[in-house]
Amino acid sequence: MSRADRAPGAPETRPPSIDRMAGWPQLAPLIEQAGRPLVVEALRAWAEAKRGASEVADAAACARWCADRLAGLAHPSQRRVFNLTGTVLHTNLGRAVMAEKAIAAAVEAMRWPTTLEYDLGGGARGERDQHVAPWLCRLTGAEAAAAVNNNAAAVLLALGALAAGREVVVSRGELIEIGGAFRIPDIMAQAGCRLVEVGTTNRTHLKDYAAAIGPDTAAIMKVHPSNYAIQGFTKSVTAAELVPLAREKGLPLIEDLGSGTLADLEAWGLPHEPTAREAIAAGVDLVTFSGDKLLGGPQAGLLVGRRALIERVARHPLKRALRLDKVRLAALEATLRLYADPARLIEQLPTLRALARPEAEIRAQAERLLPAFAAALDGWQTSIEPVRGQIGSGALPVDLLPSFALAVRGKGLDRIADAFRRLPIPVIGRIADGTLFFDLRTLTDEQVFAALLDKIDGLAG
Predict the structure, then answer these.
(1) Ramachandran region of residue 318, left (φ > 0), alpha (ψ -120 to 50) or beta?
(2) What is the chain's mean pLDDT, rounded?
């Protein structure tokens, strides 16, 4: 039926043209906010969804519908959350929270052109690793250093540069798998190496390594089992014990520290984790470790060791494919600089501050928050509970962190957990033993969290 045939006063049921609808004054604010292409896309969907309905020509209804449709696109998919899981370095939640100085350095690098690969002194091309290599050498005692995009890449690059087409000797008890199905045997295969396993799952001796070395051996590798522990009747060979054998055979000794750290965590009452400096001092030729875990910086894989080996790594074709961009290099350099002042490190590095946070401080925070928490969850049993959290990201897996949590018990815990995840700033806890726990070790923004509790709706027990 044409418009001329429609009875006087009958509602319009044929969609106006897209151009006409886009010109409605009610759509102007949405076009200003989201841009014309996305609004036109929404208008086409509106016209299709409302075809034959009287409201198809209702400009106000159309504007509301399009605004709802585009609401999800207006917000970034990667959102801030409160990590109250009890795992400080939670891989799924982004691992380390960076220091303010690292954030400022990253923002500055994003905002302006930088000397990423430019030598101001000579006016010629420079090398991007030189922004972090001097700091890595200073902090570890190594002759040279390089950086790539994560520690898996560092291991892949080291093996590819030093042992492609040849054999690498590794203890069977160190053939680790970490999150995302990263497996040492698979990495070796991708690097073009042939794995030679020695010893057994629980016991490996120095003589096992010696017996496995042959004319086609390119390197000995030591892997720190950072995400598990074998206990009981066990024996392993330390890197320091392997150094003389590697020297005698003329082979490089590679050690993957996994999470890695540049500080002695025992200084803050935490369990000891092997440091890159200890490995270099013991005589290890090449050490790899992460930048975004215990080190507390951006995602990066760091390689430190003998100059000749680092130069081979730097010349490998994969190095360019795995290199860091200017933003992460800026954040990493700023993070490394913090380690030059160990006395202030815990004040400036959020990861270390969270790990070393006193139990009494966490308990006091829980007591301040409990009344508002209980009021928001009226009808459920709420309490403060002692809990034991984890460092996370494969670091010190059997060493747990004493803490305190706001706890909820009762039916419908999944529904409560979902409600907390739907808050304007999602709150992520964990359910265990019939209880929903919100571990407060990492809660630094207490006022914002308390304000969010007022937004928990429709949860009467």
Answers:
(1) alpha
(2) 90
Q: Specify the amino acid at residue 187.
A: I
Q: How many domains, in total, are found in the chain? A: 3
End-to-end CA distance of the chain: 55
Q: Which two tokens stand for residue 86?
A: 């009890």
- The amino acid at 414: D
| The pairing of beta strand 253-256 with beta strand 286-290 | parallel
Q: Which helix (H) or strand (E) element contains residue 169?
A: strand 167-171
9 within a domain of the structure (yes/no): no
204 lies in the same domain as 228: yes
Q: Is the pLDDT of residue 10 over 70?
A: no
Q: Which residue has the higher pLDDT, 274 or 75?
A: 274
> Kind and range of the H or E element at 217?
strand 217-223
Question: Do residues 337 and 403 both lie within one domain?
Answer: no
Query: Binning pLDDT at 50, 70 and 90, where does residue 399 land?
Result: low
- Residues 6 or more apart in contact with residue 132 via CB below 8 angstroms: 145, 147, 302, 329, 332, 333, 336
Tokens of 452: 């969010």
Closest to 69 in 3D by CA, of 33, 41, 94? 41
Q: What is the mean pLDDT of residues 32-44?
A: 94
Residue 36's closest CA among 70, 6, 83, 78? Answer: 70
Per-residue pLDDT tens over the stretch 281-296: 999 999 999 999 999 9
Half-sphere exposure of 129 (CA within 13 A, CB side): 23
Neighbours of 75 (CB within 10 A): 8
- The rounded distance, in Å, linking the Cα atoms of 285 and 374 is 56
Q: Are 334 and 100 in contact (CB under 8 A)?
A: no
Which is it for strands 301-305 and 401-409: parallel, antiparallel or unpaired? unpaired
What does the pLDDT read at residue 404? 97
Contacts of residue 390, Cβ cutoff 8 Å, sequence gap at least 6: 86, 87, 88, 397, 400, 401
pLDDT at position 392 is: 77
Domain that holds residue 420: 82-90+355-453
pLDDT at 214 (0 to 100): 95
> Residue 141 in contact with residue 339, Cβ under 8 Å?
no
Q: What CATH number does residue 201 fall under?
A: 3.40.640.10
- Size of the chain in residues: 461
- Helix, strand, coil percentages (3-state) for the chain, rounded to 5, are 45, 15, 40
- Using DSSP's 3-state secondary structure scheme, residue 313 falls into helix
Cα 334 to Cα 131: distance, rounded to the nearest angstrom: 10
The whole-angstrom separation of Cα 339 and Cα 348 is 10
